[in-house]
Specification:
The structure holds two protein chains of two kinds.
Chain A lengths: L12 H7 L4 H9 L3 E3 L8 H20 L9 H10 L4 H28 L8 H23 L4 H12 L11 H10 L6 H32 L15 E3 H26 L29 H9 L3 H13 L4 H4 L11 H21 L5 H28 L9 H6 L9
Antiparallel strand pairs in A: 1-2
Chain B lengths: L1 H5 L4 H26 L5 H4 L4 E4 L8 E6 L2 E7 L2 H8 L35 E5 L22 E5 L4 E4 L4 E3 L11 E5 L2 E4 L1
Antiparallel strand pairs in B: 1-9, 2-3, 3-4, 5-6, 6-7, 8-9
Classes of the chains: A mainly alpha, B alpha+beta.
């Protein structure tokens, strides 16, 4: 599928010399220029490129910020203000980094949603999908530790609450949870020691992500891209070369997305944040209403929906880890929801559930909010554990087109004449 | 030679297993300092006990002091608050264990087991919600004190009574009573 005749012809003397020694240009040409791309992919297939772009943006702005930031309990908060007010273009670079984290997550959620809708996790793409879940988990860890660095009230209490999740292990092995939490903190409470190690890891993890992204792209290029029909590539006329067709599509989508991004960076840099984080961390006072950043709200709602501490933590972690098993939980032989009339409705119900959980996670943990959070938490798990296996078996799917080109060109599939 | 590879382990297999085990144990031992360095360091461990003067705290008032980087709640309870705490049946408690560092692990969570003899009006607690580590409200006069008149954690809605015992909400345990002693009539030493 992914193996194809390379059209790479080294022209210059240097290229020929290098090609005989380290054929890196040949590889790049084969993988990113004349790589066969399904001819029917839509704009949802531009999110991979977007995500690569945002990873690069976060690493570049992050390295610059690290040149001015001071990771100590006494100076962290002020050094961020120093970056915003005194450092040349610090305001811009800091805003790009902070807003960039949000847009990185926006893009990754669209990317995951696309995979769920078009069945991109099904054989032979299981490893590709699992690597994606690993990247998602690494992103969450990185974002969480990055959020601690400004050392505002929300930073401090987010670290306190999230690291305390591990103390729930005390319910199984008394004392072990507390030991783990103190090990994470390097003390008896969250302190500058904790901040310092989070900073070191926040600098490290993006490079780990970049490595796993490399594996993710490798796995993608072994099995080939999925497409809106979910059909395999069967003939050369099902594909177009990646450059210029898919690349141009990526460039256009990136332009539109970065326009929205720029609007937030320049006009609403704090809109996605929380005002309490402009109050310096105070270990003796918890803000009245703690909420995580918007991209963690659905999981936070699941955590709070369950009245038992240990079970709440287990539910929260398993809501993400369950994604790993989706390739096997979904029993349908048809990949794309386009041809799955029943699953399609459940898919949108699942999306609605995640958004509803996000809304409920932003509300106080009381009364009707908790009740609804329980309802949606229940559906979240029912969808993955019950709906996916059962609908896949019960449903009568719509007839599939015979090939990708038939779905694009209409019936009857004209055999390629050239 | 071919018959050897499928039958009894030979000397070479033994040497390979031995070498692998040796390398494995060596790697684990070498890893330990890199894990252990994250534990609380000597300067953090050395944070000594503190002494607190209680004389300015009138009945019904509370103060918060910092001990080992954690807030410690000290409340001078009114007779009504003490009575409310004494009247609670153990069977009504979510966590029936005293959680008092000075007492054996299984002591019941009676009000007497959470205070010092003849000083029952004084309640000394680590002011950290046993759910996920927020600081409960209830120290200042204007705070919401929750349904049981003690403390209320705004993060996830845990209610504590006037003996600092969990009554409602997701927290699994009563607020911890740290080791402390009265060094004089109006002075305590925590730690």
């Amino acid at each position: 599928m992914a193996s194809h005749e390379s059209t790479y012809r080294p022209t210059s003397k240097i290229s020929k010399w290098l090609d005989a020694r380290l054929p890196v240009e040949r590889m790049m040409h084969g993988q990113f220029v004349d790589f066969p791309t399904p001819r029917n992919i839509n704009y949802l297939w531009t999110t991979g490129g977007l995500l690569t772009f945002f990873l690069a943006i976060q690493i570049i702005t992050g390295i610059v910020l690290a040149m001015h930031y001071v990771p100590s309990a006494a100076d962290a908060f002020n050094s961020v203000e120093h970056i915003r007010r005194d450092v040349n273009y610090g305001w811009l670079i800091r805003n790009i980094h902070a807003v960039g984290a949000s847009f990185f997550f926006l893009a990754v959620y669209i990317h995951i949603g696309r995979g769920l809708y078009y069945g991109s996790y099904k054989a032979p793409r299981e490893v590709l999908w699992i690597l994606g879940v690993v990247i998602f988990l690494l992103m969450m860890a990185t974002a969480f530790m990055g959020y601690s660095l400004p050392w505002g009230q929300m930073s401090f209490w987010a670290v306190t609450v999230i690291t305390n999740l591990f103390s729930s292990i005390d319910a199984v092995i008394p004392g072990l949870g507390t030991r783990i939490v103190q090990w994470l903190w390097g003390g008896f409470s969250v302190s500058g020691t904790t901040l310092n190690r989070f900073y070191a890891l926040h600098y490290l993890l993006p490079f780990v992500i970049a490595g796993v992204v490399g594996l993710h792209i490798w796995a993608l290029h072994v099995v080939g891209q999925n497409n809106p029909t979910g059909l395999d590539i069967k003939q050369p006329s099902d594909t177009v070369p990646m450059a210029p067709y898919a690349v141009m599509k990526d460039v256009f989508a990136l332009s539109v997305f970065t326009l929205l991004f720029a609007w937030f960076v320049f006009y609403l840099p704090d809109y996605l944040g929380h005002a309490d984080n402009y109050i310096e961390a105070n270990p003796l006072s918890t803000p009245p209403h703690i909420v995580p950043e918007w991209y963690f709200l659905p999981y936070y709602a699941i955590l709070r929906a369950i009245p038992d501490k240990l079970l709440g933590v287990i539910a929260m972690f398993s809501s993400i880890l369950l994604l790993i098993f989706v390739p096997w939980l979904d029993t349908s032989r048809v990949r794309s929801a386009k041809y799955r009339p029943v699953y399609k409705w459940f898919f949108w119900l699942f999306i609605f559930t995640v958004i509803a959980l996000g809304y409920l996670g932003s509300k106080p943990a009381e009364g009707v909010y908790v009740q609804w959070a329980r309802v949606f938490t229940a559906y979240y798990f029912i969808h993955l554990l019950v709906v996916l296996p059962i609908v896949g078996v019960m449903e009568t799917t719509k007839p599939l087109p015979r090939s990708i080109s038939e779905s694009v060109l209409g019936k009857p599939a004209a055999a390629p004449k050239h | 030679m071919a018959s050897h590879s499928t039958e009894e382990p030979n000397r070479r297999d033994f040497i390979v297993i031995l070498a692998q085990s040796f390398a494995g144990v060596g790697a684990a031992v070498a890893l330990w300092p890199f894990i252990s360095q994250m534990n609380p360091d000597a300067s953090t461990q050395a944070l000594a006990s503190i002494e607190v003067d209680l004389s300015p705290v009138k009945a019904g008032q509370a103060i918060t002091v910092s001990w080992r980087g954690k807030p410690v709640f000290i409340r001078n309870r009114t007779p009504e608050e003490v009575k409310a705490a004494l009247d609670v049946k153990l069977s009504d408690l979510k966590d029936p264990i005293a959680r008092n560092e000075a007492l054996p692990d299984k002591s019941p969570a009676t009000d007497l087991n959470r205070t010092k003899k003849d000083k029952e009006n004084w309640l000394v607690l680590v002011g950290i919600c046993t759910h996920l580590g927020c600081i409960p409200k209830g120290q200042s006069m204007a705070d919401a004190k929750g349904d049981y008149g003690g403390w209320f954690c705004p993060c996830h809605g845990s209610h504590y009574d006037t003996a600092g015992r969990i009554r409602l909400g997701p927290a699994p345990q009563n607020l911890l009573v740290p080791t402390y002693e009265f060094v004089s009539d109006t002075m305590i030493k925590i730690g």
